[in-house]
Amino acid sequence: MKLPALKIPKKPSEMSRRDFLQSGAAATIVLAPGVTLMAYGAKADAAPADAAKRYGLLIDVNKCSKDCTACVSACSKEHGWQDTGHPETDAQWIRKIDLVDKANGHEVSLPVMCQHCESPPCVDVCPTGASFKRVDGIVLVDKHTCIGCRYCMMACPYKARSFVHEPLTDQKSYSPRGKGTVESCTLCVHRVDKGGTPACVEACDATGNGAMLFGDLNDPESEIAKQVATYQSTALRADLGLNPGVRYQNL
């Protein structure tokens, strides 16, 4: 279902999608004590995802302080990735970027992460089916079938994916990672499947800024759906016709 307030060009005919994940591959690799590498409910019949839902984020850039990185810190802590100041090799599940209007000098700061597209290019180019979209709109990477080719990184117009270059330690059991694989924002699917909220949204609320709103875009009674229907919002690179699940207000 299309988001109610987003006007995008008519998209081209759907490209064929690989259906590798229906093959039933369910092997598990032990990475460390208590940590296994396996899919995030990749099989449609086994996933907790609800096809009636479309999860997404609405971010008000007017409420996003330039010097605040609470969302980035929360994501790093939640999933165990580190920003060491080397963006060419560091994981960046979420990052803050600053934009300046050249016409009037107005500056805004906003978080950018996987946009959880309705028509994700990363899924289209993946040769193994490791990149996939759940029926509730959350785009994920099955680390067991990812071969590290990085085609998805090249296809993503938002530069939202990272490649794991080094061996990992102290991993989170609910957020498996692996050297030689690609990773990105999961919308904290482990929280969402238990009725929770992504760590970035929780951290933003704790600062008092309240710039990030998470919810079901398909539910007209949800706060996020009401906001999108009432106030103008923007999709990054709307011209591509990807219909992202992440929207921005006052951008």
Keywords:
251 residues; 6 helices; Alpha-Beta Plaits; alpha+beta
What does this structure look like?
The structure is a single chain. This protein is an alpha+beta fold and 251 residues long. The chain has one domain: 2-Layer Sandwich (Alpha-Beta Plaits), CATH 3.30.70.20. The protein has helices spanning 70-79, 121-125, 151-155, 189-192, 199-207, 223-230; strands at residues 29-32, 35-37, 55-60, 94-100, 107-113, 131-133, 139-141, 162-163, 182-183, 212-216, 246-249. A three-stranded mixed β-sheet has the order 10-3-11. α1 (70-79) packs antiparallel against α5 (199-207). The model is unreliable at 4-46 (pLDDT under 50).
Structural class, from secondary structure content? alpha+beta
Round the Cα radius of gyration to an integer and report it: 18 Å
Q: Please give the alpha-carbon distance between the first and last residues.
A: 24 Å
What's the architecture, going by CATH?
2-Layer Sandwich
CATH class: Alpha Beta
- How helix-rich are the residues, as a percent range? 10-25%
DSSP summary: helix tally: 6
Mean pLDDT: 84
How many structural units, i.e. domains? 1
Please describe the biggest sheet, giving its number of strands, its sense, and whether it closes into a barrel. Answer: 3 strands, mixed
